[in-house]
Amino acid sequence: MRAAATEHPDSLRGTGVDGAVRLNARGAPIADRELRRLFDYFISRIGERDEQQIRGDLKAHLDAGFAPAAVAQVMVWFDSYMTLERSAASLAAAGGDPRAAVARLRALRRERMGEAIAEAWWGDEDRYLDYTLARQDLIDDRSLDAAQRQQKLAELERTLDPARVALIQQEDQAELSLKQSEDYAKRNVPAAQRFAERERQYGSDAARRLADLDAQRAQWDRRLRDYAQQRHKIMADASLSIAQRDRQLQSLLSRGFDANERRRVDVMVRNDLLPPLN
């Protein structure tokens, strides 16, 4: 991130900017999915910084690399995007039929941003949501027997882009392996037994990757437990002033974790998700 965009402390300090502004042959910005990712990167600091500060951070980042006309256009899109985000939050808070709320939000996106930008920014998500809802309807349809349901689910899946199908299969496999790993950890299953069972189920290469993940998770858990214990000692030290305590906590966090890990740990602290003390 440009220095001008990170001069104030925040949870994204030290991370790389996600998303990008891409230009067409005439040097004008393109409102593609990468641009929306850039907006989301800056918006993720809502709660730490107000909207005007975030807008200023984004503009400073853009000013460092793009012509004024391009920056102006991107900022117009950003302001519209922020308005839509507020509308989405209001629709969610209003409750009611979620499908009707989704339909209203889609219409609002096309009204505010135009068909092309709405498709570029949300089209794939909308199609996947439609698929998910239709799939749930089939699962809940008691008029279908098992064979009919399976046939209709297969037909529905064929309406998806092949890349999306592959991604769904990967996500399903990842979720299955995660649940399996959690079960292994609860039962203290030995590493050799884990490897043998995974090798039969997934193959040798996948079994080795999952064994590496087990080791990484175990190391992460140990680091978190150590951090939680040391943090507790600092918080319980009545001899420290508020400033001294804050400096020690910051030092502890910086010593133990890299920039991306610090963001993760900070979320855990704020949501009381650190491991319990021994």
Write out key terms for the chains shown.
about 280 residues, mainly alpha, 3 domains, about 0% strand, globular
Descriptive notes:
With 278 residues, this protein is an all-alpha fold. The chain has helices at 33-43, 51-63, 68-94, 98-113, 115-140, 146-157, 162-187, 191-202, 204-236, 242-256, 259-270. It folds into 3 domains: 3-113, no CATH class; 114-160, no CATH class; 162-270, no CATH class. The protein has 11 helices and no strands. The protein is globular.
Number of strands: 0
The secondary-structure class comes to: mainly alpha
Taking all residues together, what is the mean pLDDT?
A: 87
Shape descriptor reads globular
Can you write the helix and strand succession as a string? HHHHHHHHHHH
